[in-house]
Amino acid sequence: YFFFLMIRRPPRSTQSRSSAASDVYKRQANNYLSVIHSARQEEKYEALIKFLLMARKNFKDQVIDSELAYAYAKLNKLGDLENFISNANSVEVQRVGDLCYNDKLYEAAKILYTQIKNNAKIASCLVHLKQFQAAVESAKKANTPKTWKEVCMACVSNSEFKLAAVAGSYIIVHPDHLEELIHHYEKYNVPEEMIALLESGMHMDRAHIGIFTELGVMYAKYRPEKLMEHIRNYFQKLNVSKLLRVCERYLLWNEAVYLYTNYNEHDNAINIMIEHSPTAWSHEQFVNIIQKVSNLDLYYKAMLFYLEEQPQLINELLKGLTNKIDFSKTVSVMRKTGYLPIITPWLKSVQTQNNASTNEAINQIYLENEDYESLRESVTAYENFDQLALAQQTERHKIVEFRRISAFLYRKHQKYQKSIALSKQDNMFRDAIETAQESQDTEIVEDILRFFVQQKDKEFFTVALYTCYDLIRPDVVLELAWRFGLIDNSIPYFVQVLRDLTHRVETVQKKHEDREKKEEKQ
């Protein structure tokens, strides 16, 4: 192997070296594989080229031609390489091109790939050569996501954003590559460029849900003021679950409420509005959403929230929930807070439904406010409440009108003696007379007559005779009038009694005469 020795230790003169090499070439042509291997190891590509040119004269072999092309590339003899592969040869162009590419011999690799029209590889070489415009043109010919992604990322890395946008428009239509591309833009701190690319991508024929969703994510991160408009315009084209997670991560509560509401997750929307009320709460929106929740406990949670933060609007909230809430539970919840009177307007608005809890609540409020007129109207119009309990509460009240209400309630509950006793106690004799008349009990009526006689109250004695006329026995009246000098006050009563007796006698006599006439005719 004298050739190897010549490579390692050249002859002293050019003439002797050339002569020796020529002899070696001839002798070693048949052993070219070993020669190629040794030359590569020693990186003696000049000598290897001469050897391979000599070998080509005797052998037609892919290995020889391929190694010759590679040697030209290693020595950057691009002109020789181009001439060589443009003529007849048996070069394994793809393999040699890959070798050059791996050795970062991008110009040579480009020449080789061009020969076989491997546009993807050509584009890759052009990227490394920073010929980005040409790279884009080659990528158009290759038209594969991998190639476009390589070109786009390289353009971004080198601030060639216009070309990056061109390449990116071919990537974003592929959902599998979209997130990786976005991360690359963010890595180089140019999110605005990515936003612009996604915005243009929304109008493409191949626009998919990922484009709209990722644009929403980018808005959430970098331009939150645009997110609400985006989700309103393109809600049907969004991956709502993903965008919700992003909104919560970046504290965009208004947008989260909108997404939950339109995603029919009203419970979550209400919880966010309660927990993040400074930014997420809106009264009209809250009242509208709360009526659609599935968890009924949220009604009462909302009441407590309003009581704490928006007490002036709690009656409007309850008005919106009137057909949803349990009145008894509502009253119980508010009573426990100690602020039951604050919902008085709502209680009045629903009292027409005559619910026991609301009636008792509003009656209690009237009692505490000493509003006896409203209390009287309430207990008169709405009877569904514990009447005896309220009567007992009011019978010792310092205000006489409340004691009158107590007497009225006892009367409605047919406790006439108790009612009359209260009325007598407060000198409410007209109330006592009405109660006695309502009782339809002769003994009660006659007792009250005796009371007026004992009180020497001629006026109310007369009123009682008139009011309770049908329930009083004439002999009792006559006795009382004679004994206590009330004949003059009793005369109207006895006149009416005589008139009634006369009328009855006349009626009986007429019936008797009519019967006799019928018998005579027969």
Written description of the protein model:
- This protein has 35 helices and no strands.
- Helix 12 packs across helix 14 and helix 30 packs antiparallel against helix 31.
- The radius of gyration is 55 Å and the shape is rod-shaped.
- 35% of the residues are buried.
Q: What is the general shape? A: rod-shaped
Structural class: mainly alpha
Largest sheet: none
Task: Figure out the total of helices.
Answer: 35
Helix content: over 70%
Task: State the total count of DSSP E strands.
Answer: 0
Averaged pLDDT: 90
Distance between the termini: 172 Å
Q: Hey, roughly how much beta strand do the residues contain?
A: under 5%
Query: Over the alpha carbons, how many angstroms does the gyration radius reach?
Result: 55 Å
Which stretches are poorly predicted, pLDDT < 50 over at least 5 residues?
A: 1-17
List keywords for this structure.
single chain, 522 residues, mainly alpha, 35 helices, 75% helix, 0% strand, rod-shaped, disordered N terminus
Task: Please specify the SSE layout and strand pairing.
Blueprint: H1 2-8, H2 14-28, H3 32-42, H4 45-58, H5 62-74, H6 78-86, H7 93-102, H8 106-115, H9 119-128, H10 132-142, H11 145-157, H12 161-171, H13 175-187, H14 191-201, H15 209-222, H16 227-233, H17 240-249, H18 253-262, H19 266-275, H20 277-280, H21 283-290, H22 297-309, H23 314-320, H24 327-337, H25 344-350, H26 356-368, H27 372-381, H28 387-394, H29 400-412, H30 416-425, H31 429-439, H32 442-454, H33 458-467, H34 474-484, H35 487-521
